[in-house]
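Q: Here's a chain of 383 amino acids. Please give me its 3D structure as tokens.
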Amino acid sequence: MESTNRLSAIQSLLVIQRWIGLLKWENKEEDGLLTWLKRTYPFVLHLPLTFTYIALMWYEAITSSGFEEAGQVLYMSITELALVTKLLNVWYRRNEAANLINELQHDPAYNLRNAEEVQFWQQNQRGFKRIFYWYIAGSLFVAIMGYIGVFFQEEYELPFGYYVPFEWRTKERYFYAWGYNVVAMTLCCLSNILLDTLGCYFMFHIASFYRLIGMRLEALKNSSEKKAKLELRNIFQLHAKVRRLTRQCEVLVSPYVLSQVVLSAFIICFSAYRLVHMGFRQRPGIFLTTVQFVAVMIVQIFLPCYYGNELTFHANALTTSVFGTNWLGYSVGTRKLLNCYMEFLKRPVKVRAGAFFEIGLPIFVKTINNAYSFFALLLKISK
């Protein structure tokens, strides 16, 4: 039984990611020119906007006259450095990402069998969609507040600082610098949050498969041994495929989570430092935007840690699901089959970021602690 779209939570977001040059277009029979245009389109879009804009931000930070002035730019420069890692990773592994998306969507091995599984899947997809649409809306709202907030300042100021190669603090030229800032930052922001969504969705989707395997194991308690033995073989085959998907997912999300976690402590640190030296009364619009940015940044770190933790938890919970079967009533041969499966389950399922740490909630707590430590050290040095 298969009456639901398995990727319903991100189906529309996949289309947007192809249009903004993040993902590979679906393979269709097309002429050579159109294929070439699709391959070069991401570079034509992102080189003059994303990469040039990030380079100008770093140039502004490096050439700043003092540490306090550099801190006004560094918090966003480091954020965009994480985006560069995500972009290069998804471009380098664009075929692997496209193949994984295609397998998750079309492979008949993952078909849902009954109304209960369809209902479970649809509820899960709606829950993920609800969370990430709020996350996307909140992130874009921060950017929009930044664009508008500068108009409440007495002096000319850019929403997000970067080096401008001409004098822009005049009525005639300000909107040229402001317009490029808005276009480039919107593309950067959208690329960043959509790549976050994609990485988290891979982990969420695979965690849902492990939950589905657990449901099928527990459903065996009402089946005869003959039917249960046949179903167990299907479950073992499905589990082997999902374990392979887990390794593929780790290859795709590992570099981006590693860069995000390593850099996030510095991002939050410099953002807090900026708030301390800014004050609400002097620059209320920029102050509120920075507060919102810090909140979104914390959520951005939390989400991959949460979904990585969910994947590990539900994969390791299958041992409990095995005891939910009617194993005491099975013959010796079937119990031996279950025993072999239990031995297989002893190998823990983990999604690692590089070779450094497991993606889970403990690393989120450690990142926040590191951010506070860096912030305290920075305040002490600045005094």
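Q: Can you summarize the key feature?
A: The two ends are 66 Å apart (CA to CA).
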